[in-house]
Amino acid sequence: MRSEDLRGLVSVAVVATVVIGAMSLGGGDDNNSTVSAGATTVSTAAIDTAATDSVLTTDSVLTTDGSTASTVAGDDAAVGSADDEAGCKMVERSVTIGSTGPTVICLQEALLADGIYTGAVTGTYDQATYDAVKALQVRQDLFVDGLAGRETGIFLGIWPDEASLVVHTPIPPEGAVDLLGYPLSSVASAGADAPPLPTDSGSGRRLVYSRAGQRVWAVDDDGQILRSWLVSGSKYNNETPGTHQVYSKSEESTAWNGKAYLPHMVRWLKTDIGAIGFHEIPIHVSDGTVYMTEAELGQRLSGGCQRQAKADADFVWEWADIGTVVVVV
């Protein structure tokens, strides 16, 4: 797999029971556990690993977990913008050699404006476009692969507006609970107060995760929204859309580099090189401080997993048993 979107995928997680289990995917200090306490595992045969390079829609626009943004933990280089006022926007999450269409036209125009590309605007991602993208990535210290994805698009000012797709609900009153009686976090709501479910998000008892909205819903067998809350998901295209299952849970995991604790890890996607799951906001091993605040949830700051407020992570830990369906849109 080649893409700037896989920059954070460098970790291994050890799940402590009888079985060596889930590896956690991402970069920085987040989501990549090397030690797991109180873990349980099951087979991952039913897990969907469909490709993620598709046209952007309202619910799939920005698939981008695990690593820490430079503004939060300082582990990643800051990504600037060459042209925040660019008129066009990418309508695909990534393009590379052989790609054609409006996204490539937009990319070539932005590269021309930057001055790193001198070719024609043809709408075809040819060798000259590839070389220009790769040179830009080298110059800006991005992941270098010649593929134009989220980070390249953000720098060039052609990535769609992420914040406009995130719905912030009012902070619930002190002591507020969801439909099952679990305490609500500052970014959670329940029942009729919750935003509506995305279309085509499955049926029955399940967790629904909207990557575009950076929001999760817990739904019961009757289709009732028990609870909904904001998360901080992946900066990269590694949250595979489709239907998955919870296959492993750890009361606490340790990041691959030993710098962070990941409380209440609930894993739902296993890949050849790691895993993705829901967990509480990471905690620095060095001084016990958190990586981000609840107020920052709703932003893509991780390398693969979905960071949650403590109350929401506690709920998922209790409610999402092994085998619980997770629908990602």
Count of DSSP H/I helices: 4
**Under the CATH scheme, which class of the largest domain?**
Mainly Beta
Mean pLDDT across all amino acids:
78
Helix content: 10-25%
Outline the biggest β-sheet. 7 strands, mixed
CATH superfamily grouping of the largest domain: L,D-transpeptidase catalytic domain-like
Helix-strand pattern: EEHHHEEEEEEEEEEHE
Gyration radius from CA atoms, angstroms: 20 Å
Question: Could you walk me through the main structural features you see in this protein, from its secondary elements to its overall organization?
Answer:
The protein is of the alpha+beta class. It has two domains: 4-74 and 165-328, L,D-transpeptidase catalytic domain-like (Beta Barrel), CATH 2.40.440; 102-164, PGBD-like superfamily/PGBD (Muramoyl-pentapeptide Carboxypeptidase, domain 1, Orthogonal Bundle). Helix content is 13%, strand content 19%. It contains four helices and 13 strands. The strands form two sheets. Strands 1, 2, 8, 9, 10, 11 and 12 form a seven-stranded mixed beta sheet that branches. A hairpin with a 4-residue loop joins strand 9 and strand 10. The two termini are 21 Å apart. The model is unreliable at 1-85 (pLDDT under 50).
